[in-house]
Design a protein that fits this description.
The complex is a heterodimer of chains A (113) and B (113). Chain A is mainly β and 113 residues long. Chain A is 0% helix and 56% strand. In chain A, the strands form two sheets. In chain A, strands 2, 4, 5, 9, 10 and 11 form a six-stranded mixed beta sheet that branches. In chain A, a hairpin with a 4-residue loop joins strand 7 (61-66) and strand 8 (71-76). Chain A is globular. Chain B is built from no helices and eleven strands. Chain B starts with a strand and ends with a strand. Classes of the chains: A mainly beta (113), B mainly beta (113). The interface between A and B is medium-sized, with 25 and 27 residues.
Chain lengths: 113, 113
């Protein structure tokens, strides 16, 4: 998606933390999302954050939002081999967008022993 | 509730043929979306239904594409006169009224030879 940018690849050691970054362009976006996609599968909703929040934590996942810089990050604590997948950042367009999501190209996370 | 289902999971067709895909959303979800995902990219929005009304269509949805949701439950996406460029994963998602999260199905992978 031309409005959302992500780095393409991240490699981490099992047990370390992973941080996946995303930048978006629409300041009117109300919600931002992280989805996970495993090979040949659909998208699994991991977590989301409302635009008036700075941080959201959900078990091993922490989402940080810097609205001024339009920067979103996903931190995965104690990364496991089962976390290997493609992670997509998405923004919900502002009023009138009918909840249409704009996705980044995805970050491929590789977890090695 | 078994989630969003899509049928078929895979479709191989020859250029010029017509294909039709089906999506069954999560029951009680009145909003339904179609997205297309090409290799190495994030999903791109195609169209959106609220109940049986098609409220938004992307410019990606050429005249060869048509989507319906006749009774406000399942939806079909038809592609006429398929082209090689139509090869992609077609994803369906649904969400309930007033909730800003979309739940995706496993997708239909189309290969046009």
């Amino acid at each position: 998606g031309e409005d959302v940018e992500q780095s393409l690849f991240l490699s981490v050691r099992e047990g370390d933390s992973s941080v996946i970054n995303c930048t978006y362009t629409d300041s009117s976006s109300t919600y931002l999302y992280w989805y996970k996609q495993e090979p040949g599968a659909g998208l699994q909703l991991l977590t989301y954050i409302f635009s008036n929040m700075d941080m959201k934590q959900d078990q091993r996942l922490t989402v940080l939002l810097n609205k001024k810089d339009k920067h979103l990050s996903l931190r995965i604590a104690d990364t496991q081999t089962g976390d290997s997948a493609i992670y997509f950042c998405a923004e919900k367009k502002g009023p009138g967008g009918y909840n249409k999501l704009i996705f980044g190209a995805g970050t491929r996370l590789a977890v090695h022993p | 509730d078994t989630g969003v289902s899509q049928d078929p999971r895979h479709k191989i067709t020859k250029r010029g043929q017509n294909v039709t895909f089906r999506c069954d959303p999560i029951s009680e979800h009145n909003r339904l979306y179609w997205y297309r995902q090409t290799l190495g990219q994030g999903p791109e929005f195609l169209t959106y239904f609220q109940n049986e009304a098609q409220l938004e269509k992307s410019r990606l949805l050429s005249d060869r594409f048509s989507a319906e949701r006749p009774k406000g439950s399942f939806s079909t996406l038809e592609i006429q006169r398929t082209e090689q460029g139509d090869s992609a994963m077609y994803l369906c998602a649904s969400s309930p009224e007033g909730v800003d999260t979309q739940y995706f199905g496993p997708g239909t992978r189309l290969t046009v030879l």
